[in-house]
């Protein structure tokens, strides 16, 4: 049976891409009985006599699955953070990273709107963000006002399924528009009294850009720690996982426990204070959410 990739879902139809052709398909009734439904990003088997009346027969196992936007098999997330408008926030960056790590998606940190900074300010932000490179995260700096900077991103896209994430107003739509000039997503001028834009991008579709696929709708809109276990949080901080071998207790949460490798790493400057502070803050949040049930 032929197979392909779902690029778009709209009004009960799925648009399956197979070797340069798009086949419009419906889902087989059996999926509804099994309470399964195909997602954009799914690799599927289908049957079709022509390009408009196909049926999806089976869905291959997913490597991950996002809820908002509904999309499967995402390889990486471009995590956008602007240096200004809105201001850069390390706490929010760490929060996004936890959610992306949790989905087993590779985060790539993209610092946007560099054109708004003086040279001194640039240096400050770069030395802070380089701490994340030390942890192992890839970092890129861009400005959608200066196209040259951004050509660095295109090699990262090839052969990958990428989702773009970041809070409102950081430049997600602007970046997508630059990557694919024909796409013309609405961009928002920031409303000055609120200091943030409102979401304008809607439907989900994978778009082919530079031999890779990018979701045209940003991901990770919900950033609470609902349904997270307090024991799991520490695994979403890669540098903690490394230091954990030194912890005296196997179930160490790196909080009040004695003989903690993470706290030692902190004292020795191997682990950043802001990362640790944010971890403890998130841990409290996870605990207090649990208490509510
Ligand atoms: N100075 C400067 N402004 C930028 C840059 N990128 C985007 N902007 C501006 O920032 C504002 C928000 O950009 P968008 O691309 O709409 O941001 P978004 O992340 O898609 O926002 P939402 O749709 O609300 O999630 C717009 O006024 C853009 O023109 C940049 O690199 N430099
Ligand atoms: Zn510990």
UniProtKB/TrEMBL annotation:
Broad class of enzyme this protein falls into: hydrolase
Cofactor remark: Binds 1 zinc ion per subunit.
Function, as annotated: One of several proteins that assist in the late maturation steps of the functional core of the 30S ribosomal subunit. Helps release RbfA from mature subunits. May play a role in the assembly of ribosomal proteins into the subunit. Circularly permuted GTPase that catalyzes slow GTP hydrolysis, GTPase activity is stimulated by the 30S ribosomal subunit.
UniProt keyword annotation of Protease present: no
Species per Swiss-Prot/TrEMBL record: Alkalicoccobacillus plakortidis
Protein's name according to its UniProt entry: Small ribosomal subunit biogenesis GTPase RsgA
Binding residues for GTP: 112-115, 166-174
Gene Ontology molecular function: GTP binding; GTPase activity; metal ion binding; rRNA binding
Keywords: Cytoplasm, GTP-binding, Hydrolase, Metal-binding, Nucleotide-binding, Ribosome biogenesis, RNA-binding, rRNA-binding, Zinc
EC nos: 3.6.1.-
Pfam families, sorted: RsgA_GTPase, RsgA_N
InterPro entries, sorted: G_CP_dom (IPR030378), NA-bd_OB-fold (IPR012340), P-loop_NTPase (IPR027417), Ribosome_biogen_GTPase_RsgA (IPR004881), RsgA_GTPase_dom (IPR010914), RsgA_N (IPR031944)
Record-linked SUPFAM superfamilies: Nucleic acid-binding proteins, P-loop containing nucleoside triphosphate hydrolases
Subcellular location: Cytoplasm
Cofactor(s) the protein requires to work: Zn(2+)
Protein family: Belongs to the TRAFAC class YlqF/YawG GTPase family. RsgA subfamily.
CP-type G domain: residues covered: 63-223
Entry binding sites for Zn(2+): 247, 252, 254, 260
NCBIfam families: ribosome small subunit-dependent GTPase A
GO biological process terms, semicolon-separated: ribosomal small subunit biogenesis
């Amino acid at each position: 049976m032929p197979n392909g990739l779902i690029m778009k879902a709209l009004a009960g139809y799925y648009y399956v891409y197979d070797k340069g052709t798009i086949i419009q398909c419906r889902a087989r009734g059996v999926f509804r009985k099994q309470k399964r439904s195909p997602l954009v990003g799914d690799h599927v088997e289908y049957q079709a006599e022509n390009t408009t009346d196909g049926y999806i027969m089976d869905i291959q196992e997913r490597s991950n699955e996002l809820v908002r936007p509904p999309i499967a098999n995402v390889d990486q997330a471009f995590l956008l953070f602007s240096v200004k408008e809105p201001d850069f926030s390390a706490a929010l960056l760490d929060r996004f990273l936890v959610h992306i790590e949790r989905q087993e998606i590779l985060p790539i940190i993209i610092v946007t709107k560099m054109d708004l900074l003086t040279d001194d300010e640039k240096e400050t932000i770069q030395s802070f963000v380089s701490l994340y490179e030390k942890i192992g995260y890839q970092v890129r700096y861009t400005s959608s006002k200066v196209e040259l900077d951004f050509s660095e991103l295109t090699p990262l896209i090839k052969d990958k399924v990428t989702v773009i994430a970041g809070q409102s107003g950081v430049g997600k739509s602007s970046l997508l528009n630059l990557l694919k000039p024909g796409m013309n997503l609405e961009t928002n001028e920031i409303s000055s009294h609120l200091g943030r834009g409102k979401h304008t991008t809607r439907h989900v579709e994978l778009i082919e850009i530079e031999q890779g696929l990018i979701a045209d709708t940003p991901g990770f809109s919900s950033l609470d720690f609902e349904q997270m276990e307090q024991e799991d949080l520490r695994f979403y901080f890669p540098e903690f996982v490394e230091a954990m071998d030194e912890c005296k207790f196997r179930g160490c949460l790196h909080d009040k426990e004695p003989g903690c490798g993470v706290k030692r790493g902190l004292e020795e400057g191997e682990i950043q204070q802001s990362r640790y502070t944010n971890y403890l803050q998130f841990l409290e949040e996870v605990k207090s959410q649990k208490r509510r049930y």
